[in-house]
TrEMBL record:
Protein name, per record: Sinapine esterase
Keyword Hydrolase in annotation: yes
Lineage of the species this protein comes from: Eukaryota, Viridiplantae, Streptophyta, Embryophyta, Tracheophyta
UniProt signal peptide: 1-20
The keyword Hydrolase appears for this protein: yes
Gene3D superfamilies in alphabetical order: SGNH hydrolase
Family label: Belongs to the 'GDSL' lipolytic enzyme family.
């Protein structure tokens, strides 16, 4: 009798376990909703463009390491969002533009949707136009992405439940709100810095709207140390003197300070929203410090090439040339992107994105630690399965 009970008990518990695990492979999320810019775009900008006006990410050598062809990702391979999906046992998150129709294009949004568009700002284009700043890449803002998302969600049966069971990746977004004005040079850095509260309020209100729609877990990355990227190091080389550079890293201190300032504002806003919605998990992802480690001790992470140089570009001290960008005729590409952090002057290599994603998922550089919210992630090794793109 006791044995029979034990067997029934084991049967019941394993059935319960099976039921729980069918929720998602590792029991945390059934899908991923991704907003952002080129750091997260898995093909939207490419699909928004016309055939005779492809973005650089539609040309080789973009995609060469992993996909072996350009996918619209601004890297040689996978992005952070791809590695997060893989570690959660989910397929790569499909770009929203072009739609999903399993019968027609073999794509599905059942496991998530990616609304991120390269070049997107958090604030609407009008904010920049009013100040004489152009978005040379796209007119898509976070507001546009949210509009698309609501249209999408309305088509999902039990949309609220779908969103509740999703991991929402809110960014990185906001970096371009600084990039366009900094590069166009018609507004002083001090005034550009003062955009911070407006950018952060915009991201904050989008997060609150998602919470009202049912979102329960939202990961919000801050900005990268932009003073370390070849794009800015090249742009500001002429106007900089020795004292402008960090003596340890060679990065531009004032630009990194801008990221630090912005990230502090963002974290304050997240803390404020968290207090209003105690049942929701709002997780800050510290992209600044996760990346800064590479600049402080590059070889420890396998980045044996000059850490401030881009792998793919048109030459110069940082291998970045605005006139000969990666993906354009005349640009050259390094042999081994895995020993570089920087891919094309602005974006990072798959090797860097992989390390960042691993650290975030293990709970380092996330506040609160991601593995407190999804403990099974820490024990599950990322699946080696490669999903059809
Ligand atoms: C963006 O540009 C496209 C194409 O020119 C246009 O159809 C669309 O209405 C614009 N969207 C916004 C938000 O301005
Ligand atoms: C130089 O960079 C290091 C590492 O990020 C930082 O701790 C330090 O404050 C920087 N120095 C200045 C003057 O900003
Ligand atoms: C950047 O911040 C550091 C640390 O707060 C400070 O020492 C340094 O003066 C700042 N540098 C610039 C150029 O703003």
């Amino acid at each position: 009798m006791a044995v029979a009970h034990a067997i029934i008990y084991i049967l019941l518990t394993s059935l319960a376990a099976a039921a729980a695990s069918s929720k998602s492979t590792f029991g945390c999320y059934e899908s991923i909703i991704s907003f952002g810019d080129s750091m997260a775009d898995t093909g939207n900008l490419l699909r928004l463009g016309s055939a005779n006006n492809l973005p650089d990410s539609g040309n080789p050598p973009y995609g060469r390491t992993f996909f072996h062809h350009p996918t619209g990702r601004y890297s040689d391979g996978r992005l952070i969002v791809d590695f997060i999906a893989e570690s959660l046992g989910l397929p790569m998150v499909q770009p929203y533009i072009g739609g999903a129709d399993a019968a027609v294009n073999g794509r599905s949004f059942d496991k998530g949707v990616n609304l991120a568009v390269a070049g997107a700002t958090a604030l609407d284009v009008s904010f920049f136009e009013e100040r004489g700043i152009k978005n040379t890449c796209t007119n898509v803002s976070l507001g546009t992405q949210m509009y698309w998302f609501k249209q999408f969600l309305a088509t999902v049966p039990e949309g609220r439940k779908f969103l509740q069971r999703s991991l929402v990746l809110m960014g990185e977004i906001g970096g371009n709100d600084y990039n366009y004005p900094l590069m166009q040079g018609i507004i002083s850095p001090r005034v550009i810095q003062s955009f911070g509260p407006t950018i952060v309020a915009d991201i904050g209100s989008t997060i609150q709207e998602l919470i009202e729609l049912g979102a329960e877990t939202i990961l919000v990355p801050g900005n990268f140390p932009i003073g370390c990227i070849p794009y800015y190091l090249t742009q500001f080389k002429k106007s900089s003197t020795k004292k402008d550079y960090n003596s340890t890293t060679g990065c531009l201190n004032w630009l990194n300070n801008l990221s630090i300032y912005y990230n502090e504002l963002l974290q304050k806003e997240l803390t404020r929203i968290q207090k209003l919605h105690p049942h929701v998990h709002i997780i800050y992802a510290d992209y600044y410090n996760v990346m800064m480690r590479f600049y402080l001790s590059p070889t420890q992470f396998g980045f044996t090439e000059d850490i401030l140089r881009a792998c793919c570009g048109g030459g110069g001290p940082y291998n970045y040339n605005d006139l000969v960008k990666c993906g354009k005729p005349g640009a050259s590409c390094c042999n081994d992107p895995s020993i570089f952090t920087n891919w094309d002057g602005l974006h990072y290599t798959e090797a860097a994105y992989r390390l960042i994603a691993q650290d975030l998922l293990r709970g380092h550089y996330t506040i609160p630690p991601f593995n407190d919210i999804c403990p099974s992630i820490a024990t599950s090794s990322p699946s080696a399965q490669i999903y059809k793109y």
